[in-house]
Amino acid sequence: MAPSIASITPTSGHSGQTMTITGTGLGSLSTTKVNIGTKTVTPTTASSTTVTAAIPSGCTGQANVSVTVSGVNSNSTAFFFVTAPTVTSLTPSIGPAAPTGPIDIFGTGFSTATTVAFGTVGTVAPTIVSDSHCTATPPAHGAFTACTDGADVVVTNVGGASSATGPADQFTYYDLATVTSVAPSPTPVGTPGIIVTGTCFVDVSDVTLTPTGGGASTSALNVSGPGPGILTFDLPGTLTAGTYDTRVITPGGTSAIVAADVITLT
Asked: Which domains does the chain have, with CATH numbers?
């Protein structure tokens, strides 16, 4: 009786995976060879109903799978080689410790993507837009050892995982800035050279002054940062006397309101 294949598992994948072939008359380890595309491999296990073999490298696209038992060939069935994805860019590529929405990931091989890993921070499921575009919400970052932390974004599909290539596939988490002092205070409205100290003043986009009793925020003037723990700015002349929370805005978010951030204007 000629060997006959009923099914193979998986029906798509990549080299190095184990393929399981089921059917009848499939022979034994001493009599059976497995043909995958142009490659012939020796099975790992073999019985009359089940054969397993490692999927070889060097094949692409569709490959016909058959079994040869003592020189007699079985029917063939199709297996599809899937290449690992690539990641070429992220939008945006920076964000806070607890992102609230998805980022766009661009590259190739996303149609069968199953997971997106953000370094060691965590792994999430993607939303597939096309073979070259998917979206994913970065998982929340834990405690920081520095003010920023870069995480390689690795996409996995049935063909394997994308390689970490550097800046193009790196998402950078920013820790939240904190304010520990504002000086001088009290000080007249319009005073230049106010000094703010704190932590994680990295890529500051704005410093705002908000009335402590509530109200609209006003942006400080001429903000500059001599270091990650110190900022200087000028007070706008449009402010009125009172107390204000001084808040620092970075890609990590807006610093929390604390007693130490209050400046008194006279």
From this structure: 4-81 (2.60.40.10), 86-174 (2.60.40.10), 178-265 (2.60.40.10)
